[in-house]
Design a protein that fits this description.
Helix content: 55-70%
Mean pLDDT: 78
Strand order of the largest sheet: 2-1-4-5-6-7
Distance between the termini: 63 Å
Structural class: alpha/beta
Shape: flat
Number of strands: 21
Radius of gyration: 63 Å
């Protein structure tokens, strides 16, 4: 037997009385109803008390989300962004857990925002969510287990748990940690076992069917096999046929090969003859090549001589051209000298005239003082203009701001002065985010409605008295003010379908034409007690709206009294009035369905925020006054801007005039300077020109140089003529030698042509012999290919083995005889007829399937036996532990239940091998005459289910090993007797050693309850008037710590 896993270890308390994993501090910021909250729960039973809406369930949500839970398990909003306080962008929860030791610090922070993003921090360090999950798993904290964490919106889910689900939750919460694992393993194994049993049964049936079919087809199979033997014989004969064809092709190949060998001999003889004729021809060609080389050498010398002569002629012509150029330069030189002398004379005259003009030019002095004065004035005007521009820019910005503010003021004033818009705005601010869209959609689609549709209800109700408005608003549920009321079921369906996205309720009113209400009358007794009216009499509204409000919220049963009624409230009950409003308080009485005793609730009257939103009249007056101030300020600013604009224009005109004066003076100065610079430049240019003309060479020197160059060119022409004479003599000699060598070359050509004709004749015979050989070789290759193909064909049909050769000997030896024998056997095989041509294949396939199924069936039966043994072993361990656990729960549950009701028991609902149907049954009875009934919504009331649920959770207290348990408003619906007994059970359980920390969320507690040191009271105070009280409680200490001072 395998070793059993160890149970969850019992956790002992530390010196501070906390267990590891207990919550020691909770801090919230901008979370649901809280701006800021810090509380320190006690180590045992924590009673979280506060009126409805104060934020008790917000603490439960913070614990769940802060420890890694998903929003869906709370049964409220589906996203984390919905838990950020309205009007804020982000918030966080910070939960401090007790570690294994007193010094170990475990602080888990979760930051959330309205974009549905969240971030986890562990001891101030950002970590992924999986690390947080590992930390809470280490302490066995199960946020999603209803036996450990039961929020208000999921209390009803606990009662809806099936016995199977209740067993799963209990296994996770208490006892051996292997229980849920073993349970799931048994469920999986039992399902596999069922599938295996079905498979074995199906395979067995299939096997019997296949065997029966094969027995029926046995005779037909024998006839098929006889036919197969004949066809096999045919196949054997067909195997010999290609081998006979191969032998025939081989004989043809050998004959062609013999012809090829004879052709080879003829080719060899012709090749020898060609070789003997080619040797003298090659020798004669060598002699001819030597003679051609000699001719080519003489020809090359003749070409070089002609080239040299051409170069000399070109050189001589070039020298002649150069000589004629020198003669032309001498003539040009004489003409240029005459021109130079004329230009020198003209340049001297121009230089004297320019110097005279420069000397007579007067010296101009610029007016510097005037320019500086104008610059100073321009600078002063620009400074003043910049100051004006700056003033104008500031005025423009302020004017734009004032105009934007005025537009906003006008828009806001317009919206507030519109009554319907004002009421719709109030609704939107109170949580109906899409009320404007819903109202506008209804107005656009009224033509499609059958009858009048009213809504939102706030727009249809009119209350003249402010006090009465507070009564009506306090009595009616908030959701009704944003509701729409139809008078036709078709209209209701139409609105529900199309206005689903606006999140507004749709109510349908059906007129009751049978029962008529009596008019309200105030009796003398009522007047005596100060009662003067009823809630359905104090407001005006369409009949349908009024009837819906009355029927939904019992307005005809709620009366209105004066201050005298407040003082004599105890006497109101004797008139049968169970609900009355006074200027200060709202009194409600209720009668218990069990004991018949009367309980009373007194609440303060809260001023109306929806019906009497005309308190904004002061705001409207402020806006109107602000509008007039803004208009006056804008007018003044506009005048100031225009004045500054006029002054700026004057300054700019004055500065433009001064700029123009200064530019005229500067232009005059620059013109005078430019005139003097041009005259000085003209004088310098004429001086340089005269110096350049005087520096040119004189005529005699240049003429002598040209004469010497002409003499040198004539000398070079004479040398070229002498060289040309020698080259002509050498050319005649080369010509004579070339003619002699060429004649000898012609004679050699004639001899070579004669020898080549003889060689070509022999070569022709050799080519013909070679072509005949190639033909023979091709023919041999063709026969060889056919033999190879015939052999491949024969081998593809059948390889020639010893057995096959012996079989071939018994068959005909010629192709014709063999083909005839094949045809006879085929005819005989075809004479054997049968209907199903695939019968043999089907028979053999079926036989293979029979063998395979038989093998698998044997293996499956072995596997089935092993699976049953494994399940029996696992079931023995799991069921024994589970029965002991359920017995312990039943013992505690029965004992506790006897103290509170008649009887109750917890039992294990067993189903043999169907482990997925195992469950825990909670059976209770609250009356002596009744029988024990399974806990469900059909047999017990809400209060009875609450009693049973809390007692079951208390029964798990000693067995569970989780650090804490949360139960939200489980006592709602209980009568006072059961609630008192339940509380004593909780206190007693919390006082036991090593019980987990417990949070009980409740809006109230009964008076005179017995408390122990294990109880911690956490009062939730929330609202705008408790700032001073909140400072006293900000340390988060327990009640005992506060009252000790």
């Amino acid at each position: 037997m395998a070793e059993r896993c160890a149970k969850r270890p019992k956790i002992s308390r530390g010196e501070d009385d906390y267990l590891p994993g207990n919550i020691i501090e909770v801090e919230l910021h901008n979370f649901m109803t809280f701006d800021n909250l810090k509380c320190k729960p006690g180590p045992r039973l924590n009673l979280v008390i506060g009126p409805n809406g104060s934020g008790k369930s917000s603490l439960v949500c913070a614990i769940a989300l802060g420890l890694g839970g998903e929003p869906q398990l709370l049964g409220r909003a589906g996203s984390v962004g919905a838990y950020v306080k309205r009007g804020e962008e982000s918030g966080y929860t910070k939960i401090s857990l007790r570690g294994d030791t007193l010094d170990e610090q475990i602080v888990i922070t979760r930051k959330i925002d309205t974009r549905n993003k969240s971030e986890f921090l562990f001891n101030g360090k950002v970590v992924p969510k999986r690390e947080v999950v590992e930390i809470i798993r280490r302490f066995n904290i199960q946020i999603n287990n209803l036996t450990q964490f039961l929020p208000q919106d999921r209390v009803c889910e606990f009662a809806k748990l099936t016995p199977t689900q209740l067993l799963e939750e209990t296994e996770k919460a208490v006892g051996d940690p292997q229980l849920p694992i073993q349970h799931q393993s048994l469920i999986a194994k039992s399902r596999d076992l069922k599938r295996l049993e079905i498979t074995i049964k199906q395979n067995g049936e299939t096997l019997n069917q296949l065997k029966a079919l094969n027995a029926e087809q046995e005779r037909d199979v024998n006839r098929v096999r006889q036919r197969e033997e004949l066809l096999l014989k045919v196949d054997s004969m067909k195997k010999k046929l290609p081998w006979l064809k191969y032998d025939k092709k081989k004989a043809e190949y050998m004959k062609a090969k013999e012809q090829m060998n004879q052709a080879k001999k003829k080719v060899d003889e012709a090749a020898k003859t060609v070789k003997n004729a080619k040797e003298p021809l090659d020798k004669q060609k060598q002699v001819k090549a030597a003679q051609d080389a000699a001719c080519k050498k003489v020809s090359s010398l003749m070409s070089n001589n002609a080239k040299a002569r051409m170069e000399l002629l070109e050189n001589e012509n070039s020298l002649g051209v150069q000589l004629q150029g020198k003669y032309r330069e001498m003539e040009e030189l004489r003409r240029r000298e005459e021109s130079r002398l004329q230009r020198i004379s003209k340049a001297k005259e121009d230089l004297v005239a320019a110097e005279l003009e420069l000397a007579t030019l007067p010296i101009y002095e610029p007016p510097k003082d005037e320019i500086e004065r104008l610059g100073t004035q321009i600078l002063e005007l620009e400074v003043s203009a910049n100051q004006k521009r700056l003033q104008k820019s500031e005025k423009d910005k302020l004017l734009a701001q004032k105009r934007a503010t005025l537009r906003q003021c006008l828009d806001r004033l317009k919206d507030m002065e519109n009554a319907n818009n004002k009421l719709l705005l109030v609704l939107r601010n109170s949580g109906a985010d899409k009320i404007f869209e819903a109202y506008n959609w209804l107005q656009e689609h009224r033509h499609r409605l059958n009858k009048e549709v009213y809504g939102p209800v706030l727009l249809e109700v009119s209350v003249s008295n402010r006090v009465h408005a507070s009564y009506l608003e306090g009595h009616v549920a908030h959701y009704i003010w944003k509701s729409f009321i139809t008078q036709d079921s078709g209209d209701r369906d139409f609105l529900v379908k199309n206005m689903k996205g606006f999140d507004v309720p749709i109510l349908n009113y059906v007129e009751d034409k049978i029962h008529r209400k009596d008019p309200f009358q105030v009796s003398e007794e009522m007047r005596t007690l100060g009662i003067y009216s009823r809630l359905d009499q104090i407001f005006d509204a369409p009949n349908a709206v009024k009837e819906v409000l009355s029927s939904q919220f019992g307005l005809e049963r709620s009366h209105i009294g004066s201050k005298e009624t407040d003082q004599r409230a105890d006497e109101v009950l004797r008139l049968g009035i169970m609900d009355v409003w006074t200027p200060d308080n709202h009194y409600r009485w209720s009668e218990s369905r069990y004991g018949g005793h009367i309980s009373a609730v007194v609440e303060s009257v809260v001023n109306s925020h929806l019906l009497m939103c005309s308190s904004d009249a002061g705001e409207i007056e402020k806006l109107r006054s602000w509008k007039m101030e803004l208009e006056a300020a804008i007018t003044a600013l506009d005048e100031g801007v225009k004045s500054i604009q006029a002054e700026l224009r004057l300054l700019e005109d004055e500065a433009a005039k001064l700029h123009k004066q200064r530019e005229e003076i500067v232009s005059c100065v620059q013109l005078e300077k430019k005139k003097r610079r041009e005259m000085e430049s003209r004088v310098n240019q004429r001086k340089k020109k005269l110096e350049s003309l005087e520096k040119e060479d004189d005529l005699d020197t240049s003429m002598a140089k040209l004469v010497d160059q002409a003499a040198m060119l004539n000398s070079k022409r004479f040398q070229c003529a002498m060289k040309l004479k020698n080259l002509l003599i050498e050319a005649v000699s080369y010509k004579r030698s070339f003619v002699e060598e060429h004649m000898l070359s012609i004679e050699l050509d004639a001899k070579i042509r004669e020898m080549e004709a003889n060689y070509k004749q022999h070569e022709k015979f050799a080519v013909q012999a070679s072509m005949h050989l190639e033909y023979c070789e091709a023919e041999v290759e063709e026969y060889k290919q056919k033999v190879s193909e015939a052999k491949q064909q024969a081998e593809s049909v059948a390889m020639l083995t010893t057995e096959l050769k012996e079989a071939f000997l018994k068959m005909p030896t010629t192709i014709e005889d063999l083909e005839a024998a094949i045809q006879d056997n085929i005819t005989q095989a075809n004479s054997i007829l049968f209907l199903n041509h695939n019968i043999l294949e089907e028979y053999e396939n079926r036989q293979h399937k029979i063998e395979a199924i038989a093998t698998k069936l044997e293996a499956d039966e072995k596997q089935l036996k092993m699976a049953k043994d494994e399940i029996d072993l696992l079931k023995e361990n799991w069921l024994l532990t589970l029965r002991n656990l359920v017995a312990q729960i039943n013992e505690t549950f029965s004992r506790n239940f006897q103290e509170m009701a008649v009887a109750g028991e917890v039992s294990l609902d067993e189903h043999d091998m169907e482990f997925d149907k195992f469950g825990i049954l909670i059976k209770v009875k609250f009356r002596q005459a009744g029988q024990l009934q399974v806990l469900s919504a059909h047999h017990q009331s809400g209060g009875e289910r609450s009693v049973s649920t809390i007692l079951y959770l208390v029964s798990l207290q000693d067995l569970t090993h989780c650090p804490f348990r949360v139960v939200d408003e489980i006592n709602q619906g209980m009568d006072p007797i059961n609630e008192r007994k339940m509380f004593q059970q909780l206190v007693r359980a919390a006082s036991q050693p090593n019980t987990p920390q417990c949070f009980l969320i409740t809006p109230k507690l009964l008076p005179d309850l017995e408390y122990s040191e294990a109880c911690s009271i956490l009062n939730v105070m929330n609202g705008p008037w408790i700032e001073q009280a909140a400072k006293v409680w900000s340390s988060g200490e327990s009640w005992g710590t506060i009252t000790a001072y």
